[in-house]
């Protein structure tokens, strides 16, 4: 499994538009076989930083999602939202592999 971490710098005056954009991508990631863990909007502290986390079974599955998303009309409409309203100032993308308790041979209670 690979988890994509996205850290956004957003226009603090356009948080509603960014949140609408995020809600669209949750469904779209899942449409292509991913598991979205949500968008995390500013609450305390910096008012212009938002996060998103989603996972795919493998980096290959993620790359397939990326390729297919560039051809998907719903994904292109979501991208066009930001191109029109410019609520995302910048973003960075990192990939992580999760470690779970079971990975150490420790069994979880049923």
From TrEMBL:
<dbReference type="InterPro" id="IPR012577">
    <property type="entry name" value="NIPSNAP"/>
</dbReference>
<dbReference type="InterPro" id="IPR011008">
    <property type="entry name" value="Dimeric_a/b-barrel"/>
</dbReference>
<dbReference type="Pfam" id="PF07978">
    <property type="entry name" value="NIPSNAP"/>
</dbReference>
<protein>
    <submittedName>
        <fullName>NIPSNAP family containing protein</fullName>
    </submittedName>
</protein>
<feature type="domain" description="NIPSNAP">
    <location>
        <begin position="7"/>
        <end position="99"/>
    </location>
</feature>
